[in-house]
């Protein structure tokens, strides 16, 4: 990562990152809050608090080539549909579409509206720029592999012609909060064979609708089930946008993450969707919200 000295309004100088790629955001769903996102992207730099040492860090947009949006419902494309055509860098959207409506695991708009917005984002950005995240896969007494196959097929069928890539992962319970919530969600651990069989079925559904499946930060090798292995900000996006292929791996992410380096402009614990499985929220917070 390259850096520069940035002069603040009070005249002081600070060290600021010069990222090639920025994320908005792994930490919170910024695209669901249009005004907040545009305010950040319209400034020459952003500052954020490090949750571990509580120090401010600074990020400038001087050398940005790609903006990666992460969202479950990117309202920004409803309120400001032309904004991303005006910025001097490319935009990719990682759009999470789960069907947990029956279970009430997420406080998001209904699946019908989320799918319609996915299609609108494709019309605005292009099919290759909008990637479907089927993440996380939660397995319990009701959410069996058979049920996931059914729900995945339903979404894939509706996205036929609008999606050519799907990123999946299984619920990661290594985070303390996620581990607590897993018990509340009555998660049933799956064997390697069960996971492989499920993904093999999802891969076949993907082929039916012209979609390639890709794993995200998984300890299992799902290439044997026909899925690709790549980072969410990985080789696919580098090739699609013809970016610098000498990008470094993002060491700030989990060891299994294959993403290239980016800087996140979102602040931790800022998401309002309060997903029951989120690693960032404690169990008690989710219970209060629901």
TrEMBL record:
Top-level division of the source organism's lineage: Bacteria
Protein name in UniProt: DNA repair photolyase
Species per Swiss-Prot/TrEMBL record: Succinatimonas hippei (strain DSM 22608 / JCM 16073 / KCTC 15190 / YIT 12066)
């Amino acid at each position: 990562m390259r850096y520069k000295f940035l002069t603040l309004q009070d005249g002081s100088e600070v060290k600021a990152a010069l990222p090639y790629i920025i994320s908005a955001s792994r930490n919170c769903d910024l695209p669901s809050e249009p005004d907040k996102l545009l305010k950040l992207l319209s400034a020459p730099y952003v500052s954020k608090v490090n949750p571990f040492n509580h120090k401010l860090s600074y990020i400038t947009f001087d050398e940005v080539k790609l903006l990666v949006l992460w969202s479950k419902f990117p309202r920004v494309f409803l309120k400001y549909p032309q904004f991303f055509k005006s910025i001097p860098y490319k935009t990719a959207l990682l759009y999470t579409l789960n069907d947990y409506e029956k279970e009430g695991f997420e406080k998001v708009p209904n699946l019908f509206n989320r799918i319609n917005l996915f299609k609108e984002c494709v019309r605005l950005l292009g099919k290759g720029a909008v990637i479907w995240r089927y993440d996380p896969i939660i397995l319990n007494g009701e959410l069996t592999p058979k049920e996931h196959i059914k729900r995945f097929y339903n979404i894939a069928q509706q996205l036929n012609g609008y999606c050519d890539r799907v990123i999946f992962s299984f619920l990661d319970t290594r985070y303390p909060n996620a581990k607590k919530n897993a018990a509340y969600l009555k998660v049933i651990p799956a064997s390697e064979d069960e996971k492989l069989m499920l993904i093999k079925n999802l891969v076949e559904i993907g082929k039916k609708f012209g979609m390639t499946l890709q794993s995200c930060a998984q300890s299992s090798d799902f290439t044997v089930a026909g899925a690709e292995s790549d980072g969410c900000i990985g080789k696919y996006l580098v090739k699609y946008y013809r970016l610098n292929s000498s990008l470094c791996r993002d060491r700030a992410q989990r060891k299994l993450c294959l993403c290239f380096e980016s800087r996140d402009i979102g602040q931790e614990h800022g998401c309002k969707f309060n997903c029951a499985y989120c690693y960032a929220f404690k169990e008690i917070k989710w219970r209060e919200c629901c």
